[in-house]
Design goal:
This protein is an all-alpha fold and 166 residues long. Helices cover 73% and strands 0% of the residues. InterPro entries: Troponin, Troponin_I, Troponin_sf.
Length: 166
């Protein structure tokens, strides 16, 4: 499609849309006029002053009634808006807080403490240096017994004789 053809089609579409908007505004104005003619008849100002005063009183009463209805409607809207906000908050509370995925950070305990406490504090987390060192005691009896094996044999032989005689 050439650019001139595209431009022509676009201008035709805009003309049609403009005509539709004009028709719609005329229909809205006609509907307003019909509504006003039906609900608000032309006032008759040809009467005396007492009739005009009565007409003004009725007009003020109808205005007061309309203001009360408007106020009640606004109060209902405000109340419902507050209730909607409370319900939204409850939904958020029930949904819980989504925790972000934590990234694995390779950091030593000393570096972590230094980052948390600041550079001026010197804290070391070398836990192995704080541990007590326990030295295992070797059993010296076994080594002594292992060296003198003949004596052990004689002791066992004496025991054997003791059980046989009894």
């Amino acid at each position: 499609m050439t650019s001139s053809r595209r431009h022509h089609l676009k201008s035709v579409m805009l003309q049609i849309a403009a005509s539709w908007l004009a028709e719609e505004t005329k229909q809205i104005e006609a509907a307003k006029a019909a509504y006003m003619a039906e609900h608000c008849p032309e006032p008759d100002f040809g009467g005396d002053q007492a009739a005009l005063m009565e007409f003004c009183k009725k007009l003020h009463q109808s205005l007061d009634k309309i203001d009360e209805e408007r106020y009640d409607a606004e109060a209902k809207v405000v109340k419902s808006d507050l209730e909607i906000e409370e319900l939204k908050m409850k939904v958020k509370e029930l949904g819980g807080v989504k925790k972000p995925a934590l990234k694995k950070v390779r950091m030593s305990a000393d570096a972590m403490l230094q980052a948390l406490l600041g550079g001026k504090h010197k804290v070391t987390m070398d836990l192995r240096s704080n541990l007590k060192q326990v030295k295992k005691e070797k059993k010296e009896e076994e080594t002594a017994d292992a060296g003198d094996w003949r004596k052990n044999i004689e002791d066992k032989a004496d025991r054997k004789k003791m059980f046989e005689t009894s």
